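new request in #modeling-help
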Amino acid sequence: MYSLSDKFAGMKPSATREILKVTSEPGMIAFAGGSPAIEAFPAEEVTKLSNEILTENAVSALVYGVSEGYEPLRKTVKEWLKRRENVGTDDDTVIITAGGTQVMDIATRILTSEGDTIICEEPSFVGSLNCFRSHGLRLAGVPIDADGMNIEKLEETIKANPNAKFIYTIPNFQNPGGTTLSLEKRKAMYKLALENDLVIVEDNPYGNLRVAGEDVPAIKSFDTEGIVIYAGSFSKILAPGIRVAYAVVPSKMAGAFTIGKQVSDVHTGVLNQMIVSRWFDEYDVDAHIERIKLIYRKKLNLMCDCLDRYCPQIEYVRPEGGLFIWAKLPKKVDMLSYVKELIKYKVAVVPGSSFMTDDTAPCDYIRLNFSTPSEENIEKGVEIMGEVLKKFGE
Amino acid sequence: MYSLSDKFAGMKPSATREILKVTSEPGMIAFAGGSPAIEAFPAEEVTKLSNEILTENAVSALVYGVSEGYEPLRKTVKEWLKRRENVGTDDDTVIITAGGTQVMDIATRILTSEGDTIICEEPSFVGSLNCFRSHGLRLAGVPIDADGMNIEKLEETIKANPNAKFIYTIPNFQNPGGTTLSLEKRKAMYKLALENDLVIVEDNPYGNLRVAGEDVPAIKSFDTEGIVIYAGSFSKILAPGIRVAYAVVPSKMAGAFTIGKQVSDVHTGVLNQMIVSRWFDEYDVDAHIERIKLIYRKKLNLMCDCLDRYCPQIEYVRPEGGLFIWAKLPKKVDMLSYVKELIKYKVAVVPGSSFMTDDTAPCDYIRLNFSTPSEENIEKGVEIMGEVLKKFGE
């Protein structure tokens, strides 16, 4: 009998996505998801745009596209990123992908070989970690402080891993940590990458969802040497089901990145790309982002206030944006038992161990999502969390 | 400075897709594409379906989906394949992918490691070959006869490549060969795979486009042992820009395949999948296929007749379906010079060498696509091909 590749033989489905299956059960309060707020989707706009595109010229949305992406969208994204975040130079190439995870996947394909190492924050987004694992890579985690990756530990980790190929970072409202990498640390990380022949993969799906504090410049915005692949997405500001994201790729990697896209899925759906392109043409995307931030601000503050009220034993750093709160349980409470108990009370959260490079090591954290549940359910769910804590002697 | 992975350092963009860029120049007669006939797209139906879906419940098309695919579409495809092709058992899982190439990519990810070998037809589809190459795999090509892969050579190739992991075959109207694998050979291939612990990846994007002769049962239809991954696509019968295809995966590989999809791009666009699902609900897809076959039959016969008339020196096996004719040039004619000369006369064809496991070896073939050009351009283009042949002393 045939056997699976060693790379896959030990892999499990993402715990988050497995728990998501539970969260769709009737009556479940879902703090486990990673979905943006449904009420923030520009659903009417998408309907209008899609109808226009197809009614005017359906064939244009049905033919094969090019692997780099729909040209008008690439141009629009390039200009928008430059204006909004000072990201991208004339030398960089914008390539459209089918969601943000595909940027990590293609970057991994073009930069690594089996047995190489990726340096990442610990904890980090399980979807990306699983992507790296599926390529037979080792993960070297660097702990995070309240202002992001610990730079001393990063330096040690780089020294200890001569076969590391890139640093993977989520600089804004990190998933799951909620932390934002300070400008000083961004510069230090860039310097270390440059000195050690490392690429940085800067994954920024949440950057537009800042609800407090000041924007911090992207690492890509000072990438004079062309060593940063920047990933952004329309999943959080438009909608995730449409699967449109983008990579800003330095010229030396752009050819390989395009081939990586070509051999993955040829190109991203054309109608999907045209809808996003036309969204920029007919609407004010920046104004839309300002509007949806109000939704996120309210939900984030509500969940934090509820945690303070119902679960004062739980420690967390209040994030300045994004979708997640990284909550530390009291020492007495066994994390996995607590998560399982919560499911009995119809509250779903993600075990923090899912986000660790070694997901079997002890972990006191859980990840809470505040964007998906209603305000009513945020209050109700956190109250239940507090009651269940009491059952654990807290 | 960082360096690209060895897997990508030597890779070039697909020659076909590079030539496609030339074909979009004004006035170019495009025999180089791989697009289905645009006049066969159900464009009005897609417009109506998409409008209905979004108008009734846009949010349902905008939320995250599950990695396996949109459940109603998976169910419909499973029933349709069983009825139409006797493909798929209760033990098999249907997984929706973003186009057919992604099936090859995920199969490769879960079954192989760098340095392994894939056994394929020689010539074969350059998109799949490049996908395999991008994973650091070796290609072992087996020549094709008029009735598909040469089975004696397949047996020799299996013996010579103990680290081969799967056989990749396009059984119907092979790309670019145009040949169809006989039932006897399908059975022989299956037996050899079983005896040698090999998986078969059966890539069948063109099977529905048969315009002459009788259907041959899919290898998957007699896969009692669960060793065949079957790939089908809506690119050729609906439209390619929508990027919806499917894999029928034996139960033992289904978990890994789902993870492979998850780490690639999380899931296929939801609206895209809903459009296809609803297409089955509201229209008679089998009747649509019968209608579009008429378009393909006419174009295929026209191109063959024109070749016989204007280029009698060119040899080819008349395909019974699909999109391509694999044309052998007379000995005197240098293939690459001929292709370049044709471009000067505004006719684009693909050099046959693109489809070879070693694309630098001598090759007398070109690939002609008859589905994209108009009938007028088929006649005009083949006439030019004949005139340019004369310039080469033919």
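bot summary: Chain A has a mean pLDDT of 95.
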